[in-house]
Predict the structure.
Amino acid sequence: MTSTFKRALVTLALAASGIVPAQAQTLLNGSYDVAREFYKDYNAAFIAHYKKTTGKDVKVDQSHAGSSAVARSVADGLDADVVTMNTSTDVEFLASAGVVAKDWAKRFPDNAAPTTSTMLFLVRNGNPKGIKDWDDLVKPGIQVIVVNPKTGGNGRYTYLAAWGYAKKKGATDAQAAAFVGKLYKNVPILGKGGRDATSAFLQRNIGDALITFESEVVSVNKEFGEGKVDAIYPSISILAENPVAVVERTVAKKGTGELAKAYLNYLYSDEGQEIAAKHALRPRSPAILKKYAATFKPLQLFTVQEMFGSLSEAQKVHFNDGGQFDKLYTVR
């Protein structure tokens, strides 16, 4: 019996028993809008790394929307193996639904957040309205594009950054609410997610300023060409952590637990951190952060914990139905 014939018989026997030789495993990453370009590059690097270290092929697919919309899709049955979010409330929502582990934040270093970001302003080339800080965004006649805080972490961080700025400048809670209320009076439309807001600003030419993640600057320059926007760093902004988690429900079903862990762990590698820095996501690695010091301009950052206790607390007070945001803004 030839070795080729033997191999054919083994393959037939495996097929008959329902066990087929492993094909390339497929992993689905459910992620927020603004991370789209970063993960395109990261996935290519991870696939090459995984092949080199294990000899196995892997395919990585992406699903993007506003982070809360992605979280709801996963809770409703989207078979993502991992979620890579821009706000911990969306991962906590999945943990409360039993979809990710209760102790997800301890499964990876740095509260399971391999990168961070902050909120800044994109203005039209040359900054015709002279926008320099949060106070300029509440002036009459200025139109500001933001993401709906009910549908995206981008929007929640924008709201909390504005509130925290007012508090840092000595405002009471009532004065901070009035300041944020003025800002939202200048918002003609709410984006569903970061990419939707960017499209409104640059494709539909609505607004004088877009408040978005620092990392969106790279995507805008790539997609729309250099020189369309200026990035304005406010004097004070918020530290936004980008948390990640394995979707236990999916990996148990698909048998992709080890692959999912390897995918998220690689975000902490020098290569993963370097790719993040190139996409203007602030790396956790001090060495790589220092290397990209020109990209990450210094500004006064405050944490959610310092100002609001936690994102969960902020969610209850500000973003749940009937909360502070609903009191300040009526959807038009």
Q: What stands out?
A: Residues 36-54 form the longest helix (19 residues). The radius of gyration is 22 Å. The chain has two domains: 3-116+241-291, 119-238+299-328. The chain is about 45% helix and 15% strand.
